[in-house]
Amino acid sequence: MTQSTDIRRDTALRLAASGVPILPLRAGKVPFGNCRACARNACGGRPNMKTPGPCTCPRPCHAWAAATTDPTVLRSREWAQAWRTAAAVAYHPGGAGLTVVDLDNAEVVAWARETLPATRTVRTTRGEHWLYQGVMQSANAVRPGVDIKSLMSYARWLAPGIGTMAALPDSVRALAVKESASARRVPQTLSVPLMGGQGECRHRTPTYLDRGIAMAEQRITEARSAVHATVYGTFLAVLSTHGGCGCLTDAHVARLFTAAQAKGESVRHCTDAWTNARTALGM
Q: Engineered SS bond to 175: which of 114, 142, 144, 280, CB 3.0-4.6 Å?
C-alpha cells in the first residue's frame, strides 16, 4: 500500500476504535459502487437504503450502510482495494450518535452563527461542518447551502474540529420538518372554533391537546421495535382524538414528525403514515 493509503486506513482504524463508523470515498466524494454480488441490489435487505443499520456484504458497498467500526472488516482483503483507490475517509454521523449541519459557504456560516447554538465546528473547503450530539433524519437543502447529515447519510472526515460539542437542539430538528412540503400540506388548523355547532371544542383546551401530543411523542420515542407500525398507530390515535374538529396545527404535526424522524423514519414515511391514517379515518 502507498503511504497515503496507509494514512487513510490508519485514520479509519483510529476513528473506528472510538466508535465512529467509517467508510472510504472515491474521487468526487462519492461511495464505492456495489460489488458484483450486490449489483442491482441483488442481495436485498439493508442495501435498499431504507432502514438504518450496517450492510451484511463484506465489501464497502451501499454508501452509508457500509460504514463499520469493525477493525477486521477495515483491514480485510475485501476492503484493501477500496483503500488503495480511496480519495477520502468518510463516516456515518448517525451511527456515531451525531448530527452534522453542513454549511456550504460563508453566507450560511454567518447565518448559523446568528441562529444556531454554538457547538464543535470543522472547517471544510467552502464552509463549515457544525457537529451536534444526537441523531435525526438527514435532509438535503433545508435552506440554500445547508444540508443535515445524520441517520442514513455520510460525511467526510476532515478533522476533529474545535469547540465543545452541544446537544442537538430543537432549532436544528425543526429545519428538516419546517422545510418539508409534507408538513406544510397538513390542512388541519385552528380555524374551526366549534364542534357540531354547539359550545367550545374540548380538544382546543390547551392542557388536553398538549398532553395528547406529548404522550404521542413519548410513545414514538420509546419504541424499541416495529417503529413503522408504532408511528402509524400513534398518528391514527392522534387523528382519531384530535383531528375531527380542526384543532391540530402544523406545529403539532411537526412535533410528531420530528419524533418519528429521530427514530429513523424518513419524511416520506411520515407523510405516508399520516396520509394513510387520515384515509383510514375518512378525513
A: 142
Whether 148 and 175 have beta carbons less than 8 Å apart is answered as yes
What letter represents residue 97's amino acid?
Answer: G
Please report, for residues 16, 49, 106, 213, 223, the alpha-carbon distance to residue 153 in angstroms, rounded to integers and kept in the order given. Answer: 17, 10, 23, 29, 22
User: How does pLDDT run along the chain (283 residues), one tens digit per residue?
Assistant: 555 778 888 899 999 999 999 999 988 888 888 888 777 767 764 544 445 556 677 888 888 888 999 999 999 988 988 899 899 999 999 889 999 999 999 999 999 999 999 999 999 999 999 999 998 888 888 889 999 999 888 999 999 999 999 999 988 988 887 544 443 344 333 322 223 333 345 555 567 777 788 888 888 988 877 788 888 888 888 887 777 666 777 778 888 888 888 888 887 778 888 887 777 777 6
The number of residues making up the chain comes to 283
Contact present, 11 and 5 (Cβ < 8 Å): no
Are 172 and 147 spatial neighbours (Cβ–Cβ below 8 Å)? no
